[in-house]
């Protein structure tokens, strides 16, 4: 999301996590009151947000997780998403990470949000194992230049139990990453990062369930290339104004003939915060997870 709490993912889970209300389930309004109470194992959320395997003919299932305000801002005045999200958003954020094979993020967001190699969110290792995921969450960084901050390139700074991020880059970007583990650098093009090549490279490593957390340019490229299968979008009850970016940035409008509208899978609510899961592909989600 522009990364939701990226450096907080190993902190203890607060006991006062908010209750989430169901508003829409399976694309239809909920007729009777249903809630999702705080649960250390997040069993119900893990079912609601099960990360599908790729559809036939595709090698990855790419899910994005983003947050926006009522007026469409993707950050607060400080330029990061932490100013506009809350604990309800964090409950979902933790589960999405725990269920992903790999988190995909742009280098600009890595710098702005202070990403480090990822640990499994506290208390969700069993959930991750039960879903058949590897013990470690991979981080894949899209960087045309290969210019990354020290917390990524200095392996001695990496938290224990994590793996060095995969860098999806260009020929010149790879040249700037001399000294970084060669098996963690993937050249996807000469001058630009080719996302088709990048996603195929992740799939070759068995990383087929991809969670994209921004930034807006990366998300725009994923949408424009029709790589994005679903969007988990948190709407915060704030109006911030200013020059904040939107969650998707492209040079041109993306409205095209034959591009179907998104389908609302479910909608949760807590204290004015809306948490929606949108499917961008065919009419229904795959049966297999």
Keywords:
289 residues, alpha/beta, 21% helix, disordered N terminus
Characterize the structure shown:
This protein is α/β, with parallel strands linked by helices and 289 residues long. The protein has a domain at 54-252: 3-Layer(aba) Sandwich (Dihydrofolate Reductase, subunit A). Helices cover 21% and strands 23% of the residues. The protein has 8 helices and 12 strands. The chain has helices at residues 43-48, 87-99, 107-113, 125-130, 150-153, 171-175, 195-204, 216-224; strands spanning 20-25, 28-29, 35-36, 61-69, 102-106, 138-142, 166-170, 185-189, 209-212, 228-236, 263-270, 273-279. Strands 1, 2, 3, 4, 5, 6, 7, 8, 9, 10, 11 and 12 form a 12-stranded mixed beta sheet that branches. Strand 1 (20-25) and strand 2 (28-29) form a beta hairpin. The two termini are 23 Å apart.
């Amino acid at each position: 999301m522009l990364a939701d709490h990226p450096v907080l993912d190993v902190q203890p889970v607060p006991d006062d996590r908010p209750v989430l209300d169901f508003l829409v389930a399976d694309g239809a309004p909920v007729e009777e009151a249903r809630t999702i109470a705080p649960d250390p194992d997040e069993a119900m959320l893990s079912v609601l947000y099960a990360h599908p395997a790729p559809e036939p003919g595709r090698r990855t299932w790419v899910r994005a997780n983003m947050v926006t305000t009522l007026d469409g801002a993707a950050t607060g005045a400080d330029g990061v998403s932490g100013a506009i999200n809350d604990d309800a958003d964090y409950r979902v954020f933790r589960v999405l990470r725990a269920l992903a094979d790999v988190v995909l993020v742009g280098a600009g967001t890595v710098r702005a949000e202070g990403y480090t190699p990822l640990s499994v969110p506290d208390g969700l290792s069993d959930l991750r194992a039960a879903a058949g995921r590897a013990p470690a969450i991979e981080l894949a960084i899209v960087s045309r230049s290969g210019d990354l901050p020290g917390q990524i390139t200095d392996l001695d700074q990496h938290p224990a139990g994590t793996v060095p991020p995969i860098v999806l880059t260009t020929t010149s970007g790879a040249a700037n990453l001399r000294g970084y583990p060669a098996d963690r650098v993937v050249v996807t093009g000469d001058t630009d990062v080719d996302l088709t090549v990048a996603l195929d490279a992740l799939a070759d490593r068995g990383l087929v369930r991809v969670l994209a957390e921004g930034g807006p340019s990366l998300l725009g490229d994923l949408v424009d290339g029709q790589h994005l299968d679903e969007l988990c979008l948190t709407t915060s009850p704030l109006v911030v104004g200013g020059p904040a970016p939107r969650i998707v940035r492209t040079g041109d409008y993306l409205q095209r003939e034959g591009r179907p509208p998104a389908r609302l899978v479910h909608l949760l609510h807590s204290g004015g915060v809306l948490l929606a899961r949108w499917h961008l592909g065919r009419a229904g989600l795959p049966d297999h997870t």
